[in-house]
Specification:
Largest interface: A-B, 54 and 50 residues
Helix content of chain B: 40-55%
CATH class of the largest domain in chain A: Alpha Beta
Structural class of chain A: alpha/beta
Number of strands of chain A: 14
Strand content of chain A: 15-25%
Number of helices of chain A: 11
Strand order of the largest sheet of chain B: 1-2-3-7-6
Number of domains of chain A: 2
Number of strands of chain B: 7
Radius of gyration of chain A: 19 Å
CATH superfamily of chain B: Thiamin diphosphate (ThDP)-binding fold, Pyr/PP domains
CATH architecture of the largest domain in chain A: 3-Layer(aba) Sandwich
Shape of chain A: globular
Oligomer: heterodimer
Structural class of chain B: alpha/beta
Chain lengths: ~325, ~325
């Protein structure tokens, strides 16, 4: 066992998979000599050489398309988006080519797109977005979003070995802020399975990514008031682990859905709809959502704090649903 | 470069097969016997036949939608293509896709996405894999004149050139993007000028002359295969039908069509073969009879083939499906 950060977990996952499988390679802006904007590939260039750690032109659609083509002939590329926000430039290749190849003509497209996402870093509208919602409505893609260093490593390894295109949402705020004890031996965390981050009986807080930590803080505070929160960390956003979501809510009968992504048409809307559709008889109160407001991500600290859901917002929502 | 007689006759055969297959598809479209639309390469067949025939077995074709010759040459049979047009289970994609949205990795053919020039970066990626693995394989990626205005055209060429990848970019310049003529698509005279910006050597060829297209492709493939990096081939030709068969293409001046009709790729090839005493009329007629028979068989096969089951619609979204996805 050793203790590593979320960012180190990502780096280790790639390093180990590249060492294990010569088909795995990394491409993106400044991932080579420089080691990546967030240092996720530091030292890789020296270790694996310029043909497995490729600095690309500033050309997201071009290098994402190239990753797809390489995957079609047997490689397992990892694409690094410098910031998740730039993934919009590769939207067509991901949504129309990667996501549909298998359904349309039976060709597996094993690519991983690493997307450093999320706010709280004073990055403004183009360096802070949650992008999972852009792709949530695209069958054929898998979207994962780890909240711990343990999952960051295990899920990335699973994604690299998976035969489908996977968008890996790595939260920038967590990079150096959280650590986990990680086993020395190889492990994966399966795609498609949520995790109960904290067990509880009174209310389910369903969330993912950095918000898992906000939910944990909430649970800690409310425990003192005698409220027992169960926290469901989705880990995989597409496809959703319906069994775990429904299982938790059937137990607690009350639910708050929490995410950093903006509210309208977000993952929380789908989770709410699922609960209403399949869990109505078990519900003992309204399904509440805590999410960012429907605005671009603001820059100034005061406004960004108001934008990103805070512990107090989640506490208020839990207290509200507990009144039913 | 000398081309063997046998190869010249195969080129002729594939020109005829492409033309007759698409002509038949057009008739079936007008009779309401295929599903959806019919997009043909009529008048431009020499492009796909020329560059497709120059590929080696282990190479990859990343085609666009007027590339029927490539599909046939790579080994995707007329039967499977006809069934594809009818939405049958035996079609290339089992009914999941239609008409020219064909791809089959067993024959080294990447699927065609409607977003034109998407296959420029995708083809570039396969070339990148070949370079990483040090394999002597190359990629031919194709798009039309319209697609050359899209970002992916430029992003693919730029990346391929910066890394000197083994890929040849083909452009089927048939002068109209749907109804929009070249003069409204770009201010440059030759599309090949676009390759200049990426330091990619280019060649402009008569896209109605299959021998010329084939020779240019062979030369460019040879350079790519031997580490010389990408090339660009602009094939100047003319789309003789509408964008698809529903479109009468009244926006194209009739005189222009009359002029190009004289340069028809099949007539051009027949003339070449006979004037150079490579084949006589009788032999060419023999090839044509074989082609006709093949198309008839393809149609019968497609007609007799079953439709896919409606439940198949749920299958194949993922290569590795997640079990919990099924049911709730």
């Amino acid at each position: 066992m050793k203790e590593i950060t979320y960012l180190e977990a990502i780096k280790e996952a790639m390093d180990e998979e590249m060492a294990r499988d010569p088909g795995v390679f990394v491409l993106g802006e400044d991932v080579g000599v420089y080691g990546g904007a967030f240092r996720a590939t530091e030292g890789f260039y020296e270790k694996y050489g310029e043909w497995r750690v490729l600095d690309t032109p500033l050309s997201e659609s071009g290098f994402t398309g190239a990753a797809i083509g390489a995957a079609l002939v047997g490689m397992r590329p990892i694409v690094e988006m410098q910031f998740a926000d730039f993934i919009s430039c590769a939207f067509d290749q991901l949504v129309n080519v990667a996501a549909k190849n298998h359904y349309r003509w039976g060709a597996a497209t094993p690519i991983v797109v690493r997307a450093p996402y999320g706010g709280n870093i004073h990055g403004g509208a183009f360096h802070s977005q949650c992008i999972e919602g852009f792709f949530f409505n695209v069958p054929g893609l898998k979207i994962i979003a780890p909240s711990t260093a343990y999952d960051a490593k295990g899920l990335l390894k699973a994604a690299i070995r998976d035969n489908d295109p996977v968008i890996y949402c790595e939260h920038k705020y967590l990079y150096r802020r959280i650590k986990d004890s990680i086993p020395d031996e190889d492990y994966i965390v399966p795609i498609g399975k949520a995790r109960i981050a904290r067990e509880g009986n009174d209310v389910s807080v369903i969330t993912y990514g950095a918000m898992v930590h906000t939910a944990l803080e909430t649970a800690q505070l409310l425990e003192e008031n005698g409220v027992s929160c169960e926290i469901v960390d989705l880990r995989t956003i597409l496809p959703l682990d319906k069994k775990s979501i429904l299982g938790s809510v059937k137990k607690t009968s009350k639910v708050v859905v929490l995410h950093e992504q903006t509210k309208t048409g977000g993952v929380g809307a789908e989770v709410s709809a699922l609960l209403s559709e399949y869990c109505f008889d078990f519900l003992d109160g309204p399904i509440l959502r805590v999410a960012a407001p429907d605005t671009p991500v603001p820059y100034s600290a005061q406004m960004e704090e108001a934008f990103i859901p805070q512990t107090k917002d989640v506490v208020a929502a839990v207290e509200k649903v507990m009144r039913y | 470069m000398d081309i063997k007689r046998e190869d010249l006759l195969r080129l002729y055969y594939y020109l005829k097969l492409t033309r007759r297959l698409e002509d038949r598809v057009t008739s079936l479209y007008h009779q309401g016997r295929i599903l959806g639309g019919a997009w043909t390469s009529n008048g431009t067949e020499a492009v796909s036949v020329g560059y497709g025939y120059a590929l080696e077995k282990n190479d990859i074709a990343a085609p666009y939608f007027r590339d029927m010759g490539v599909f046939l040459i790579r080994g995707i049979t007329a039967k499977r293509i006809m069934a594809q047009y009818m939405g049958k289970k035996t079609g290339v994609t089992g009914g999941k896709e239609g008409n020219v949205h064909i791809g089959d990795l067993n024959f080294g053919v990447f699927g065609f996405p409607s977003h034109l020039a998407d296959n420029y970066p995708v083809g570039t990626g396969a070339a990148l894999a070949f370079k990483i693995r040090n394999e002597k394989r190359i990629v031919a990626a194709c798009t039309g004149d319209g697609g050359t205005s899209r970002g992916d055209f430029h992003e693919g060429m730029n990346f391929a050139s910066a890394r000197k990848l083994p890929i040849v970019f083909i452009c089927n310049n048939n002068q109209y993007a749907y109804s929009t003529p070249l003069r409204l698509q770009m201010a440059i005279k030759d599309i090949a000028e676009r390759a200049l910006a990426y330091a990619i050597p280019s060649k402009i060829v008569d896209g109605n002359n299959v021998v010329e297209v084939y020779k240019a492709a062979m030369e460019a493939y040879d350079i790519a295969r031997n580490g010389g990096g990408p090339s660009f081939i602009e094939c100047k030709t003319m789309r003789m039908h509408g964008h698809s068969e529903h479109d009468s293409a009244r926006y194209v001046p009739r005189e222009l069509l009359e002029e190009w009709k004289k340069k028809d790729p099949i007539l051009t090839m027949e003339k070449y073969l006979m004037e150079n005493t490579i084949a006589g009329k009788e032999e060419l007629d023999g090839i044509d009879s074989q082609v006709k028979k093949e198309i008839e068989e393809a149609e019968a096969f497609a007609e007799e083939s079953p439709y896919p089951d409606s439940e198949d619609c749920l299958k194949g979204v993922y290569a590795t499906p997640i079990e919990e996805e099924r049911g709730i």
